[in-house]
Amino acid sequence: MESHTTLRTFLRPKWLLTHLLVICLVVVMMSLSMWQFRRLDERKTFNAGLLANTTQAITPIKNLALNLPADLNDIQWRRVVVRGTFRPSAEVTILNRSQDGTAGVDAATPLDFTIDGKQYVVIVDRGFVPLATPMPKAPSGEVEVLGRIRISQERRVGALSDPATGILTEAQHLDVERLSGQTQLNAQQTVLPFYIDLLDSPQITSSLPARVSSPKTDNGPHMSYAIQWILFSLCAVAAWVILVKRALRASQPASVAAE
């Protein structure tokens, strides 16, 4: 009789709702934990690719421009050197940048060069300038640029987007495909499908634009977040156990009296 009474107690609507709530909390929090573990794996994969490409020898851009891989991620972060001429008239300001805790913009400037007599252009992110600071002009004449290859920036969920058509003088993202039409000087010129972060140039001695920061190579907080969600789910289970034990103790005197 007592066991049936106890069972009926835990099948009441209030208790059924409690059981369902705890199950939902555990499922959600464990899912978030697994998501953080996946993010950790992605970060480790990113770091491995970053290390592999940044440690390769500096190569002339010609070697990659004439032998582009099917997946540009295979060459992202590779260091290249190129000699050419900046074209400030086609420069685009990349908005909403942040570096070292300071808000500002980046300058994306086409660099015209030739390979075996054929015309090419690559967009160069010359670096970061804080807000309200005038953007320094790109140097005139031929320059030698050491840079690292980057693929187009993708729009994040909820972020501002750029107009799909028209000439852009300001952009939210450095999307090479979107800018290629206005970057191409003529029909004979090839626009490379990636851009480069400027790392160094003998012809550029000013402190601004500041060089774009290198990516972080740590694993981030994903492991601690994953463990945190596991602990939260254990706390939910522990709270449910405590509530059940209290309910059992509360029901014991009534059961004894009924007998």
UniProtKB/TrEMBL annotation:
Its main location: membrane. It is found in: Membrane. Pfam families: SURF1. InterPro entries: Surf1/Shy1, Surf1/Surf4. PROSITE patterns: SURF1. Keywords: Membrane, Transmembrane, Transmembrane helix. The chain crosses the membrane at residues 15-35, 225-243. CDD domains: SURF1. GO terms for cellular component: membrane. This is Unannotated protein. It comes from freshwater metagenome.
